[in-house]
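re: ur question from yesterday

yeah so i grabbed the chain u mentioned. its 205 aa long if i counted rite. heres the sequnce exactly as i have it in my notes:
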Amino acid sequence: MSDTTWNSSNTRIVVDSATNVPLLLRDQYNMIEVPVLVNFGTESFRDNIDLRPEEFYERFAASEVVPTTSQPPPKYFADAYQQAFDEGARHVIVVTITGQLSGTLASSQTATQFWEAGTLETVALEPDFHQPGSRAGQVADEERFLFWDSESISMGSGWQAVAAARMLEEGLERRELVERLYEIRSRLIGFATLDTLKYVALSGR
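ran it thru and got these structure tokens back, copy pasting raw so excuse formatting
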């Protein structure tokens, strides 16, 4: 493979916990998960670290306040990048939930300033693959990073991270990786069903 090939040996995938990639798949593809923050009133918990899913539902059932979430601080992403590079990665692909509903993508990009201040030049994502209306934003140092706005939530985002991981197993150039991800994203359709509208109403939506 050429030096410009991104593959499973030289590239790590970083996801935020709101992508809901199952632990089994994260382990299989050696992904690093950055936790979103779950807030109950003035208390904040790191998703899947300080607060496991079963604990969330127990607290939710007993709580008088409606929980909220907030994006991971840039420092959380910076720590993930440092871990990836310390463990031998040359490239990092960051897959987040949609930038239209969350500041997570922006936080992941801001994190490069914390990770190695002053050394990463911010450049635009290739316009050929920048879907109109997307808020994919900026990419820092294309030799190291690819920031991917999934334009989805939950496993709509998670499956794009898994797809990227499977592409890395065969190895490919960065531009081809972006092309394929764009194709997957453009064909993605999500459906959701709710048992009740109670919690949607409580959240103000």
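noticed a couple things. The first helix runs from residue 23 to 28. also The CA atoms of residues 10 and 88 lie 7 Å apart.
anyway ttyl
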